[in-house]
Write a structure and sequence with these properties.
It is a single chain. The chain is α+β, with helices and mostly antiparallel strands and 468 residues long. The chain has 13 helices and 19 strands. Strands 9, 12, 13, 14, 15, 16, 17 and 18 form an 8-stranded antiparallel beta sheet that branches. It has a 4-stranded mixed beta sheet with strand order 1-2-3-4. Strands 10-11-19 form a 3-stranded antiparallel beta sheet, with no helix packed on it. Strand 10 and strand 11 form a beta hairpin. Helix 5 crosses helix 7 and helix 7 packs parallel to helix 11.
C-alpha cells in the first residue's frame, strides 16, 4: 500500500488498466478512476474501505465525464485496445468469379456474355450491439449493470472495435451516426439514469415499470457472491430515491410495493442447485432467492394482451417495520387482504394428477420469456374422471424446489379481476403463496399463484397478516 501511495509507472499496470490510461491521455483528460486501484478490496479480515468507498460508486459513475468499458476482457489482463480485424491483409479487389456475370432478364435465368465490369458487391453486416455489449464477458456481470446505466456516456472497447452509448444514441466505428437497428427494444428498454429521469416524470412509472425492467434484467446476470445481490443494485436505487422522494425497501419501493410483490422465479440452468441468498433477507423480497425473476403487473407495457380496466389491486400495505433500525434486510411487512388455507382432499383442491404444467394452464398472458421449469404445480378441484377444469384450478410457481410442498399452503389475494367483459382465458386472481414459519406469528412467502377460479376467495374477509 505505501508503494502505491508513493506513485508508480503505468508500465507496471496490467494491460486493461494500461490501455485505459492511454485512452484517457488521448482524450486530453488528467484523471482516471479504477475501482480496484482506488478502493482497498475487501477481505475476510477487513472491508472497512470498501464499505465507505463502495457506497460512493453510484455518484462516481453518474458524474464521470466518460466510462471506459473493457467489453472483451474477462480480467485485468484482457485489454481495451486490439488490432483491427483484417488489418494484416492487403486491401485490393477480390472478384468472386473468374468472369463477371450478367443475366439475360428477358430470357429468364440464362447467363451469357460475362462482362468484367459487372461484379457483385458484398457488404458485411456491422457487428451486433447485443453480442458486443450485452453478451460480452463484461456485460454478464451483475455489478456492471449499475455502472452502465448510471454513466452519462460509455465507450465500449472490444475486439471488434469501439462502441458508444449515451442518452442520445448508440453508435460504433461501423455506424458512427447511430446503430441502424433499434437495440433499445432488444435491450429490454434499459436507459441511462440521466436519460430516464429527464424523460419520465411519473414516479409510479419510474418505480413501477422501469424498475421492474431493471430488476428482471439484473437478476439474469452473474454474481460471484450472492450476498451482493442487493448491494450490486443499490447504486441504481439511490438516484431514483432522491429524485422521487420514495423509500427503498429491500429491492422494492414503498409507492409500488403491493404490486411489486407479484414476482415469480424462472427456471434455473440444468444442474444448478439454488439456495436462499445469504443475509437473512425477508422472504417477500425478490432478492431473497438467487436466479432470474419476472413480475406480473397491471401495466399494459408488461402485458399488452390484458384487459387492464378489468383488473385492480385488492390488497393494501398496512405497515412495515425495520427490526434493526436502518438495516434494510431486517424488514417485516404487514399486508391486508383476503386469504384462504388450501386443504388438499376430496372436498377441496388437490394436486393435479394428469399431465399438465403451469405453463399450459397459465391464463393467456404468461410472458413469452417466462420459463418456470419444474418450479410450477397445478392444484385443481377433483373430478371422478380426473378431468381438469382450468376455471377451477390454481397454478403455483414455487420460489425454490425445497419449498415445493403442498401442505399448509395459504393463498393470499393481491390482484383480482372484475366479472365485466373479461375473456374466458384470463386470470381472475393472482397473489402470494404463504406458509406459517414454525411457531412464529408471521408467514413466509414460498411462491406465487395465478387462478381462473372465481370462487376461490368466496366467504373470506380482508385480514392483516405479517410477512417475514
Amino acid at each position: 500500500m505505501p508503494s502505491l501511495l508513493a506513485g508508480f509507472s503505468d508500465a507496471a499496470l496490467p494491460k486493461t488498466f494500461k490501455d485505459a490510461v492511454w485512452i484517457t491521455r488521448q482524450l486530453g483528460k488528467s484523471y482516471l478512476w479504477i475501482d480496484s486501484l482506488c478502493i482497498i478490496q475487501p477481505t475476510a479480515e477487513d472491508n472497512s474501505d470498501w464499505t465507505i468507498e463502495g457506497s460512493k460508486m453510484s455518484d462516481i459513475y453518474r458524474n464521470s465525464w466518460l466510462t471506459i468499458a473493457a467489453s472483451s476482457a474477462s480480467n485485468s489482463l484482457g485489454g481495451c485496445l486490439f488490432g483491427r480485424l483484417g488489418s494484416e491483409f492487403e486491401i485490393g479487389p477480390a472478384p468472386l468469379f473468374e468472369r463477371a456475370i450478367r443475366r439475360d432478364w428477358e430470357g429468364g435465368e440464362n447467363i451469357f456474355d460475362r462482362n468484367p465490369d459487372w461484379l457483385p458487391t458484398v457488404r458485411p453486416n456491422p457487428p451486433s450491439w447485443v453480442n458486443i455489449v450485452q453478451k460480452s464477458p463484461l456485460g454478464s456481470r451483475a455489478w456492471v449493470l449499475q455502472e452502465r446505466i448510471l454513466s452519462r456516456r460509455t465507450l465500449y472497447a472490444s475486439v471488434q472495435g469501439f462502441f458508444w452509448e449515451c442518452a442520445e444514441k448508440r453508435a460504433s466505428v461501423y455506424e458512427p451516426l447511430g446503430c441502424s437497428f433499434d437495440y433499445m427494444f432488444r435491450d429490454n428498454g434499459l436507459q441511462t439514469i440521466n436519460q430516464l429521469l429527464a424523460e419520465e416524470q411519473q414516479p409510479e412509472s419510474l418505480l413501477g415499470f422501469h424498475w421492474r425492467r431493471i430488476v428482471e434484467y439484473y437478476t439474469r446476470l452473474r454474481l460471484t457472491f450472492e450476498s451482493d445481490r442487493l448491494p450490486a443494485i443499490a447504486g441504481l436505487a439511490k438516484p431514483l430515491g432522491i429524485h422521487t422522494g420514495d423509500t427503498y425497501l429491500v429491492g422494492h419501493w414503498e409507492t409500488t410495493l403491493c404490486s411489486s410483490l407479484l414476482w415469480f422465479r424462472l427456471a434455473d440452468e440444468e444442474g444448478v442447485e439454488v439456495q436462499p441468498a445469504e443475509g437473512g433477507l425477508p422472504s417477500w423480497s425478490w432478492a431473497a432467492m438467487p436466479g432470474a425473476v419476472k413480475f406480473t403487473s397491471l401495466d399494459s407495457r408488461d402485458y399488452p394482451t390484458r384487459q387492464m380496466d378489468d383488473y385492480r389491486t385488492v390488497a393494501t400495505i398496512a405497515s412495515y417495520t425495520r427490526l434493526d433500525g436502518n438495516v434494510p434486510q431486517h424488514t417485516t411487512l404487514k399486508i391486508t387482504g383476503r386469504h384462504r388455507l388450501v386443504e388438499l382432499g376430496q372436498t377441496d383442491l388437490r394436486i393435479l394428477t394428469i399431465r399438465k404444467t403451469i405453463s399450459d394452464f397459465w391464463a393467456g398472458h404468461i410472458p413469452t420469456s417466462a420459463d418456470i421449469g419444474q418450479l410450477g404445480a397445478v392444484l385443481t378441484k377433483p373430478y371422478e374422471d380426473e378431468f381438469c377444469d382450468d376455471k377451477m384450478s390454481v397454478g403455483i410457481v414455487y420460489d425454490a424446489e425445497e419449498r415445493k410442498s403442498h401442505e399448509g399452503l395459504v393463498l393470499f389475494q393481491v390482484l383480482s379481476a372484475s366479472r365485466n367483459n373479461l375473456a374466458a382465458a384470463e386470470a381472475r386472481h393472482e397473489g402470494l403463496v404463504l406458509r406459517r414459519r414454525g411457531s412464529a406469528k408471521g408467514f413466509e412467502r414460498i411462491g406465487f399463484f395465478t387462478s381462473q377460479y372465481w370462487g376461490l376467495f368466496d366467504g373470506t374477509e380482508p385480514e392483516t397478516v405479517e410477512l417475514i
